[in-house]
Write a structure and sequence with these properties.
Strand content: 25-35%
Number of domains: 4
Structural class: alpha+beta
Number of helices: 10
Distance between the termini: 77 Å
Shape: globular
Helix content: 10-25%
Largest sheet: 7 strands, mixed
C-alpha cells in the first residue's frame, strides 16, 4: 500500500506563515466581496507570466510527487491528481518529459490541464499559463474531461479511471445542470475547489467578459460561471466548492506548491495561505429586498471621446456595485461612485442612468437621467497608443504605451496580439493575446516586457506587465497591434504580409498624439536592435535631445575630443552611453578645468552624451 508521507492539515497559521510579511496588508477587518476585491488587487499586482511552453519544465519545481510513493527525495515523477492513487500503487507515472498532445488510452503521457477550461478565456494570456490552475494530468483523462465542469456524479457513469475518478452525469445538489461532470477522488477535491476560487479572485474584473452561459438550457450549459465579477459562480456550484474545501482541507503539498509558484510567478493563492477566507467571502445570506437607487447623477467632465460621471451612493447597506446604462444599454459596472465612459463619438449627446445592485444581484430602479454632450475633437488622444517598440536580441522585447486621453483609462478590455504565418496552410493567424488589466492615469506610460529579456537599460522590476506569451515574442516580420474589444486601436507593421523592420527599435515621434490602426513608418524614429534608451520614461530620446538648448556639442561627428560650449561649470557628471542605454564612461565635474571629453578609446558608432539630466546624440568616427 502507498503511504501518504505528509499529513493533510487545516492549520491556517502554518499556511499563512508561508506568505511574505506584509503580503496581505489591507485585508484586516474585511469580509465578503470587499475582501475578495482586495485580494484580487494583491495577487494581480506585478505577476510574471510565462509561456505555455515553459510549463513542463516549471512543473519540476511545482508538481513533483514528494508526498505519496516517492517521498521528499530527488524524485522526477509528477503528481497527477487525475491518476494518483493515494492509498495504493499508481497504475502509471510521468516525468515532465512525457508531454503528449493526444492519447487514445490512459498511461501514455500527460497534458497541461486548465482546471478552468481555456475556452472560458479564449486561450489568452495571462490565464493560459497561470500555474495556480494549470496542472499536469493524464492526457486521456484530460481529453475526456473536455470542458465539462468538476462536480459530483450520479449513477449514470460514462468513464471510470484507474484511480476511481470518473465522468458521470451531474448530481450537484440543487443544481439545474444535469450534463456530464468530472468527479475527482476525495483526496484532491479541496485542491481543485481552491484552484477554481483562486481563479475567481485573480481574474475578478475580467470575469464578466469571459465566456459563460446564460441559462438558455441550464441542464446542459457546462460553465458554472454566472457572469458576475463578485460571486463568480452559480450559487449551487459555490456550495459544492465550499463543501469540497471543507472536507478536504489544505495539505502540505498545496502549501509547498503555492510557495514554489510564488517564486516563479510572484503571486499566491490566498485561499491556501488563509483557508478561512473561503467562508468569509462566499458564505453570505442576501436579502430579498431591492436596494435604493443612487441619486444626484451628474457629469463632471466631458471631452471629445469621454464623459466622467459621478453620483451619490445608494443608502442600502448591502450594495456592492453600480451598473451604468448608456442610452438604455448596460455599458459598464463599477464598485465606485464615479466612472469614465470612453470610446464615445465627438459632438454627440448621450443619455446615462445608473442602478445599484446588492449581494443577491437585485437591482435598484434607475437613478435620475442625465444628458452628456461630448465636445468637438481637441488635443487629447482618442485612445491610448504605443510609443516605443523594442525588438531586441532573442527574447528582449518590450512595448511602451501612453495615456494622453485626458482621463484615467480602464485597461481591462485592451490586449496585445501578434500575427503569425502558418507555413502549412499558407495563411496568417493571431497568436494568443495578452490581456491588460488595471487602470492607467492620464499622462502616464507603462511598459509591457518579456520576462526573459536581457535589455541592458530596463529590468523586469521596471515593467508594469511581464509576459513571455506570443504577444511579446514578436520579430520584425510580424504585425503587432493594440486592440480594444478586438478592434484595432494602434498597430506596428501591416497585416497579412511579411514586414521588414527586423532588428530595430521604433520610437514614436513627439509630434504624434493619436493612435492609428494603419501603420505609417514616417511616424517613427528607428534605432538599432536592443536600443531601449529612456524606455518607460515620460520623454522619448528625441524629446530629450530637442529640449536641450543650453549647451552645444562639437564637432559631430567627432574623432578624439568632444567639446561642449555654454555654462558648463555647474555640470556634476558627464556620461557616455551606447545605443542600448548602457553607461560606458563616467566623469565627475568634467568641465572644472576644461571644455572637452576625451573619446580617443571609444569605438566608432552612435553614442549619447549625458550631462546631468540632459542628453545629446553624437557619432564617433
Amino acid at each position: 500500500m502507498k503511504k501518504l508521507l505528509l499529513p493533510i492539515i487545516l492549520i491556517s497559521s502554518l499556511a499563512a506563515a508561508q506568505a511574505p510579511a506584509g503580503y496581505y496588508d489591507g485585508t484586516v477587518g474585511l469580509s465578503g466581496y470587499a475582501l475578495k476585491s482586495k485580494l484580487h488587487d494583491i495577487i494581480a499586482e506585478k505577476n510574471v507570466n510565462w509561456n505555455y511552453s515553459d510549463l513542463p519544465n516549471l512543473y519540476n519545481q511545482t508538481d513533483l510527487d514528494k508526498y505519496y510513493d516517492h517521498g521528499p527525495g530527488n524524485t522526477t515523477i509528477l503528481l497527477d491528481m487525475y491518476s494518483e492513487i493515494p492509498t495504493g500503487t499508481d497504475a502509471y507515472e510521468y516525468t515532465s518529459a512525457n508531454l503528449i498532445s493526444t492519447s487514445g488510452a490512459e498511461g501514455l503521457g500527460y497534458n497541461r490541464e486548465h482546471a478552468v477550461p481555456q475556452s472560458t478565456f479564449n486561450s489568452n494570456y495571462p490565464m493560459y499559463s497561470d500555474l495556480h490552475f494549470v496542472i499536469p494530468t493524464d492526457a486521456r483523462i484530460n481529453q475526456l474531461r473536455n470542458n465539462y465542469p468538476y462536480g459530483v456524479g450520479n449513477s449514470t457513469v460514462h468513464y471510470t479511471f484507474t484511480n476511481t475518478s470518473r465522468i458521470a452525469n451531474s448530481a450537484i445538489p440543487n443544481y439545474a445542470y444535469t450534463n456530464r461532470v468530472y468527479e475527482p477522488v476525495a483526496e484532491f477535491r479541496g485542491d481543485i475547489a481552491r484552484m477554481l476560487l483562486y481563479f475567481a479572485i485573480r481574474y475578478e474584473n475580467k470575469l464578466p467578459s469571459f465566456n459563460y452561459f446564460t441559462n438558455i438550457n441550464p441542464a446542459i450549459d457546462r460553465s458554472p460561471f454566472d457572469g458576475t465579477a463578485e460571486r463568480a459562480f452559480d450559487p449551487e456550484y459555490i456550495a459544492m466548492l465550499i463543501q469540497w474545501h471543507t472536507q478536504d482541507p489544505v495539505s502540505q503539498r498545496e502549501i509547498d506548491r503555492n510557495n514554489a509558484i510564488y517564486a516563479i510567478q510572484k503571486n499566491r493563492n490566498p485561499l491556501i495561505d488563509n483557508p478561512q477566507w473561503v467562508n468569509a467571502i462566499w458564505v453570505q445570506i442576501p436579502d430579498a429586498v431591492s436596494p435604493q437607487a443612487p441619486v444626484n447623477l451628474a457629469v463632471s467632465q466631458t471631452g471629445a471621446y469621454f464623459a466622467n460621471l459621478n453620483w451619490s451612493p445608494s443608502t442600502s447597506s448591502d450594495v456592492i456595485g453600480y451598473n451604468i446604462y448608456q442610452n438604455g444599454v448596460l455599458v459598464a459596472t463599477t464598485k465606485s461612485t464615479s466612472i469614465v465612459i470612453d470610446h464615445l463619438t465627438p459632438s454627440t449627446s448621450y443619455s446615462f442612468t445608473v442602478k445599484a445592485y446588492d449581494q443577491g444581484y437585485l437591482q435598484s430602479v434607475d437613478s435620475n437621467a442625465i444628458t452628456a454632450p461630448t465636445l468637438a475633437p481637441d488635443t487629447n488622444s482618442k485612445d491610448i497608443f504605443i510609443i516605443k517598440y523594442i525588438e531586441g536580441t532573442g527574447n528582449s522585447k518590450a512595448l511602451e504605451i501612453v495615456n494622453k486621453t485626458g482621463h484615467e483609462v480602464d485597461l481591462n478590455n485592451y490586449s496585445i496580439r501578434v500575427q503569425y504565418y502558418n507555413n502549412s496552410s499558407g495563411s496568417y493567424y493571431y497568436g494568443n493575446s495578452f490581456e491588460l488589466e488595471g487602470k492607467i492615469p492620464n499622462n502616464q506610460n507603462f511598459v509591457i516586457m518579456n520576462p526573459k529579456s536581457a535589455l541592458s537599460c530596463y529590468t523586469n522590476n521596471d515593467a508594469r506587465f511581464l509576459t513571455a506569451g506570443e504577444a511579446l515574442t514578436f520579430a520584425g516580420t510580424q504585425y503587432v497591434e493594440l486592440a480594444y474589444k478586438s478592434t484595432t486601436v494602434d498597430a506596428i507593421g501591416s497585416k497579412f504580409v511579411s514586414n521588414s523592420y527586423g532588428d530595430i527599435s521604433l520610437y514614436r515621434k513627439s509630434t504624434i498624439n493619436q493612435p492609428t490602426s494603419t501603420f505609417t513608418l514616417g511616424e517613427w524614429d528607428s534605432y538599432p536592435v536592443n536600443y531601449c534608451q529612456n524606455l518607460g520614461g515620460t520623454l522619448s530620446t528625441i524629446d530629450l535631445i530637442t529640449s536641450n538648448k543650453e549647451f552645444k556639442i562639437y564637432p559631430n561627428p567627432v574623432h578624439d575630443d568632444l567639446f561642449v560650449s555654454g555654462e558648463t561649470q555647474d555640470i556634476k557628471v558627464a556620461q557616455v552611453l551606447d545605443v542600448s542605454g548602457k553607461v560606458i564612461y563616467t566623469e565627475k565635474e568634467p568641465f572644472r578645468n576644461k571644455k572637452n571629453i576625451s573619446l580617443q578609446n571609444l569605438s566608432a558608432g552612435f553614442y549619447f552624451l549625458k550631462l546631468d539630466e540632459k542628453v545629446y546624440q553624437f557619432i564617433k568616427k
